[in-house]
Amino acid sequence: MNEMTAVTDTASEAKPAKATPTLPDAQTVTAVKHWTDRLFSFRVSRPASLRFRSGEFVMIGLMGDPDPKTGKQKPLLRAYSIASPSWDEELEFYSIKVQDGPLTSKLQHIKKGDQIILRPKPVGTLVHDALLPGKRIWFFATGTGFAPFASLLREPQTYEDYDEVIITHTCRTAGELTYGRELIESLKDDELLNEVIGEGFWKKIKYYPTTTREESAKMGRITDLINSGEAYKDLGVEPLNPESDRAMICGNLAFNLELKDMLEAAGLEEGANSKPAQYVVEKAFLD
Ligand code: A2P
Predict the structure, then answer these.
(1) Using an 8 Å Cβ cutoff, are 42 and 32 in contact?
(2) CA of 215 to the centre of ligand 1 (A)
(3) Predicted confidence (pLDDT) per residue in 128-176, tens digit
(4) Which of 287, 285, 286 is nearest to 144 (CA)?
(5) Whose CA is nearest to atom 6 of ligand 1?
(6) What is the pTM of this model?
(7) Which three-class secondary structure state does DSSP give residue 250?
(8) If you measure from the C-alpha of residue 168 to the centroid of ligand 1, how many angstroms do you get, rounded to a whole number?
(9) How far does the centroid of ligand 1 lie from the alpha carbon of residue 213, in Å?
(10) Which of 84, 38, 43 is nearest to 214 (CA)?
(11) 85 and 196 Cβ atoms separated by less than 8 Å
C-alpha cells in the first residue's frame, strides 16, 4: 500500500535513473497527475493476465542505480495499493513523493510513455471476501491510504453488499484531500455503477474528510473525532456496532494500530481471507 512508501522510502543518495524498455515485467505509463508537492497519481497499462480483487496491492518500481563495482542494476520495488477497480482496463496508483526516498524520488518524475516494473502478483487483506455480511461499511484512511478505497469505492460489490458506505479521510492539509474528493464526486456520473447498482446509488456514500494541520470545514484526527462522538453526530449515524458494522483501515502505522484498538474495544473482530470477520487492516507494512 502507498503509505508504506512514506514509511520505508527513507533517505538515500538516489540519482535519477531512466527506465528502459528492457525492464522485467514492464508496463507503460499512460497518465500522470500531480496533486500537491507531496502527492501524485498515475495510470499504467494492465497486463492482460492480471486479475485482482479491488483493494489488493502489487509490487511496483523502477530499476535502481547501477552497483558502483559491478555496474549491475537491481529492481527497486515497493508495495502499492491498486487505486483503480478490478474491472478497469488500466491500473491506477496514488503515491507520496519523498524527495530523498530511493524509489519515489525517481518515480515522481515518470511521464506518459515511460515504463515501470509491475510484478503481477496481487495480494492484500482489504477485500470484501475477508468480511462477514453487514449493513454498513466504514473505510478509514489517512494520506495515501485512500488508494485501496479509491478502488473499492468504484467496485459494484461495495454497494451490492452494504446499505451505507462511510469513507473517512484524514490528511495534514486541505490540498491533500483533493484526489479523494474529486474521485468521490465523479462517482455520481460513473456509468457502470449507475447501471449495475441503479441511479442514486451514490446516496449510500457518506464522506467525512478532515484535516489536522490546515484549516478546513472539519479539523481533527478521525480517531479523536470518533472517540469524542463528534464524528457520529456530524454524520448522523449510530456508533460502531459489531452486529451491523464492517470496517477497513488503511493509513500510517500508528493510525492503523490506534484504530484497530478502537474497533476491538467496540466489539469488532479482525477478519482474514481464510476467516472473514468484522474488520480488516492493511498488512503491507507489517510484513
Ligand atoms: P497529524 O497531523 O496530527 O499527525 P502523514 O501525512 O504523516 O502520514 O499523516 C496523515 C494524517 O494522519 C495526518 O492528518 C495525521 O495527523 C494523521 N495521523 C497520524 N497519526 C495518526 C494516528 N495515530 N491517529 C489518527 N490520525 C493520525
Answers:
(1) yes
(2) 15
(3) 999 999 999 999 999 999 999 999 999 999 999 999 999 999 999 999 9
(4) 285
(5) 143
(6) 0.92
(7) strand
(8) 13
(9) 9
(10) 38
(11) no
